[in-house]
Amino acid sequence: MVKVGVIGLGTGGITFISEIRRLRVPCEIFLFEKRGLKVFHPCSIPEALEGKIELQSLIEPFGLSGITFMGQAREVDPYSLSVGFENNGSIGKVSLDFVFVATGGDVVLPSKNFFKATKYDDVEKIKQLLPGAKRIGIVGAGILGLELASALSVYPIQIEIFEAKDHILPELIDRGLSEKLLKKIDRKNVFFNFGRFVNDISGFDIVIFCTGFKPVSPLPFEIRVDEYMRVIDPRSGKPFDRIFAAGDCITYDFKIPRVATIAAEQARIAARNIKMIVQGNQPEEKYELFVAPVLVKAFSYEVGKVGRIHKPSDLQKFYLDLKVLPFDERKIHIYAELDKNGIIYELQAFCDLRSEVRHIIDISYISMKKMISVSDIRRFELSYQPEVCKFPDPVTSFAEFVSRRLGIL
Questions:
Q1: Number of neighbours of residue 233 by Cβ within 10 angstroms
Q2: Strands across the sheet with 290-298, in order?
Q3: Interhelix angle 11-22/260-278, nearest 10 degrees
Q4: Which CATH fold would you assign to the domain 291-406?
Q5: pLDDT of 222-271, one tens digit each?
Q6: Which of 106-110, 262-266, 278-282, 361-365 has the lowest mean pLDDT?
Q7: Which residue, 291, 293, 264, 403, is CA-closest to 355?
Q8: Backbone dihedral region of 24: left (phi > 0), alpha (psi from -120 to 50 degrees) or beta?
Q9: Considering the entire predicted model, what is its pTM?
Q10: Sequence ranges of the domains in the chain
Q11: Quick one: pLDDT at residue 47?
């Protein structure tokens, strides 16, 4: 039985433990987490601030048994595969056969007057200050900044969002689609300030920082990984055979959304490759550089994206506004990039009606993974509409329009 150390109990750590158990890998799991045996759900922070859920529900006890809890990892020696730790004042070190790192990232505050949007203690303080607040400043109009602004806009408080780029969700969606979404946001107490770098601002009762994210590495160097999710040794440039990582603790040379879906997919791949090594084989499962389905809910809209990280330069680009229902004027707004054969390389969408965005994003993700062209999507009629309904659903409408434009119908 091998000894596997898991550092971090966020999405990556939980997914890895669940997958390694599902695969029935004969191992003993040693868990290192500074919060103890507790799971923190940062994705639900906007709902907690809005009052939809209790703040205390963001943290819950870790439910899996049969795991040895070691305390907080203090140092990791990648060459001896040992982890130094601290638990209730006691210091120790344990040698392991494998190490999996999922320590996430953190926001570096430029001013002590700011609150971190992802820290439980800060969210607790924000909740306490809300009843007397009149002005809230949010730095960053990315995923978290937009979701927080949406949640806090239900209060009679003026909210100002500061974004260094010139549009909302700058790391997630195309500028043209972003501008359409911004025009749809109708909240009289929400104001956007673009093109402004903010180190310190005054005149606000609460300032929440939602940008400046940096990976957290317990290793003595930045974590970079190969396609099998093995950590790269900066000395040799080659991967460590038995150290894996997933999620926000990884440093990339390209832009990638810092979202739970990517961390979970990477963690599953790491677990499967560890199983192969334990069985005496070489790792085989690779992480394909996809932006796994990302969904954002803010201001009554659902925004989604899926795509490849690296794309050819000669892709065709399409903007579409498609009606969803025959008796409703609301539309799903789409931006897509495809090659001449109709293979989707990226698709973004937003809509305020039902789960239209999730549907088209999921179909697009499957088609990208399987290299299915839009003409085949149309032919397969991947629709949820009954035959009696002659009004085509957005997936069919999108596939038919793009197929005709590309001349592959």
A1: 17
A2: 290-298, 301-308, 344-351, 331-338, 316-323
A3: 40
A4: FAD/NAD(P)-binding domain (3.50.50)
A5: 999 999 999 999 999 999 999 999 999 999 988 887 888 889 999 999 99
A6: 106-110
A7: 293
A8: left
A9: 0.88
A10: 2-106+214-279, 115-211, 291-406
A11: 92
Fold of the CATH domain 2-106+214-279: FAD/NAD(P)-binding domain (3.50.50)
pLDDT mean over 212-221? 91
CA distance 315 to 308: 12
pLDDT digits (tens, 9 = 90+) for 116-156: 888 889 999 999 999 999 999 999 999 999 999 999 999 99
Burial of 380-389, coded b for 16+ CB within 10 Å and e otherwise, reads eebbeeeeee
Lateral strand order in the sheet of 230-232? 90-95, 82-87, 68-77, 27-32, 2-7, 98-101, 239-245, 230-232
Average pLDDT over residues 60-82: 90
Q: How far apart are CA 180 and CA 184, in angstroms?
A: 7
What DSSP string describes 239-307?
Answer: EEEEEEE-GGGB--SS-----HHHHHHHHHHHHHHHHHHHTT---------EEEEEEEEETTEEEEEEE
Per-residue pLDDT at 377: 84
Q: Do 72 and 85 form a contact (C-beta atoms < 8 A)?
A: yes
Question: 371 in the Ramachandran plot: left (φ > 0), alpha (ψ -120 to 50) or beta?
Answer: left
Residue with tokens 């990984």: 225
Backbone angles phi, psi at 208, to 5 degrees: -110, 125
In angstroms, rounded to a whole number, what is the distance separating the alpha carbons of residues 191 and 211?
A: 18
90-95 and 82-87 strand pairing? antiparallel
Integer Cα distance of 76 and 94 in angstroms:
10
pLDDT tens-digit series, residues 324-366: 877 778 899 999 999 999 999 999 999 998 688 999 999 999 9
CA dist 78 and 76 (Å) reads 6
Question: Are 336 and 320 a contacting pair, CB within 8 Å?
Answer: yes
Q: What would the DSSP string read from start to end of 82-138?
A: EEEEEETTEEEEEE-SEEEE---EEEPPSSTT-EETT-HHHHHHHHHHGGG-SEEEE
Radius of gyration of the chain (CA): 23
Regarding the domain delimited by 115-211, which CATH topology (the fold level of the hierarchy) does it fall under? FAD/NAD(P)-binding domain (3.50.50)
Neighbouring-strand partners of residue 242: none
CA atoms of 158 and 150, how far apart (whole Å): 12
Return d(Cα 125, Cα 107) in angstroms, integer. 17
